[in-house]
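Review form for a predicted model. The reviewer records the input and the model, then writes brief findings.
Reviewer: anonymous (R2)
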Amino acid sequence: MHATGNFDVKIQPQTPDNPQARASGLGRLSLDKQFHGDLDATSQGEMLAAGDGTTSGAYVALEKVTGKLHGRSGSFVLVHRALMVGGTPREWTVTVVPESGTGELAGLDGAMTITIVDGKHGYDLSYTLPDH
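Model under review:
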């Protein structure tokens, strides 16, 4: 199955909270999203980033999504990983964490493709869900 739509995202830099985090020089950011379309949900998460994010770098993130997917209520966790080379994303994966689904989304498995066109974020979640 596929769920498509768009989302709004607020990304806020966070202050490193220990000497090791400060020494790493990595960026730590909070994520706050509102999904629209087949996925009617909110999410909150954390991102770690290296590089300038526009021409080169990498990021990893975890976010917990809570709401309705094609009318089924629950939550699940997404894990992100991406590289940026010469301003072009490479190896960008966003995957549902196994066994993270709750409620009517228990057993959810899948991966999300994110698109950014003219500053607007879109998603396509390809997924499977056991019959209830």
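Findings: The mean pLDDT is 95.
Further findings: The beta strands are 2-14, 27-37, 39-51, 56-69, 72-85, 88-96, 109-117, 120-128.
Recommendation: see findings above.
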